[in-house]
Design a protein that fits this description.
The chain is built from 8 helices and 6 strands. Helix 6 packs antiparallel against helix 8. The longest helix is centred in the first third of the chain and has 36 residues. The radius of gyration is 19 Å and the shape is globular. Bound molecules: guanosine-5'-triphosphate and magnesium ion. Guanosine-5'-triphosphate binds next to helix 6.
Length: 228
């Protein structure tokens, strides 16, 4: 099951956020951006289909679905420009194309811890997939306590004038990691005005992430025993 996290911006919404793009008044830059945006979306669709197919294969073969569900999102143009600002890059199409690897993102929520590697390995060993970036926040959690496996892969998208390699960001995490990340994100967002308020609960939040990890490890042990 693939859920659309936010509505994909339509042409009007994209246009209204494009004022910041250097050269947006020239149709050429604008057209390049729109074409690339659609290409990235197509890349995420390709990855989603690959993951769905792998999940079905595991279901048939092992009677177990590694994937609980997936969520995709396209980064809104306004967020792309914000990110360029943060990276101190010029707001040009080339900057987006060359430096932002998460225009399209897909989040894969797995049932068990070991499913993360199962899915990641099966996907990245496919002959048309290249891993561009890998960050293992599971074996090396972030200071906040955040855990997930982050990949950026390149997948060919077949366009009218041929195939083009397209980056897609993939975040893989268990149901427990997703629960923690979603709620922690909400806490942070709610207390946006005063970051100190969240810092105060840092130890507690890190502790919960660890506890959830313990629970998920134990649940997986039970699952393995039942399978044998
Ligand atoms: P950019 O993607 O370029 O910003 O840098 P990056 O890839 O180094 O960023 P990172 O690997 O930290 O991943 C960023 C994404 O991971 C965010 O958009 C969140 O979805 C998620 N994330 C990272 N850290 C946290 C955290 O502490 N809490 C929560 N809830 N999510 C996090
Ligand atoms: Mg990112």
């Amino acid at each position: 099951m693939i859920l659309q996290r936010d509505n994909i911006p339509n042409l009007d919404q994209i246009s209204s956020q494009m004022g910041e793009l250097v050269g947006a008044e020239t149709t050429e830059e604008f057209r390049k951006f729109i074409a690339y945006y659609q290409q990235c979306q197509a890349g995420a669709n390709e990855i989603g289909t690959k993951l769905d197919n792998l999940d079905s294969e595991y279901q048939m073969r092992d009677n177990h679905n590694p994937i609980h569900h997936m969520e995709t999102r396209m980064k809104a143009p306004a967020s792309l420009f914000k990110k360029l600002d943060k990276k101190q890059l010029p707001k040009t199409f080339d900057s987006i194309h060359d430096h932002i690897l998460d225009v399209a993102g897909i989040r894969v929520i797995t049932n068990y811890l070991s499913d993360i590697d199962t899915v990641a390995d099966a996907l990245t060993s496919q002959s048309d997939i290249t891993v561009l970036k890998r960050k293992d926040y599971i074996n090396h959690p972030k200071p906040s306590g955040y855990r997930s496996l982050h990949l950026v892969v390149s997948v060919p998208v077949f366009r009218t004038d041929g195939p083009v390699d397209t980056p897609v960001e993939i975040q893989l995490r268990t149901v427990g990691m997703d629960m923690w990340a979603s709620l922690e994100h909400k806490l942070r967002y709610k207390t946006d005005v005063d970051p100190d308020k969240v810092v105060k609960y840092g130890d507690q939040l890190r502790g919960y992430a660890k506890e959830l990890n313990g629970i998920e490890t134990n649940l997986q042990t039970i699952f393995k025993k039942l399978q044998d």
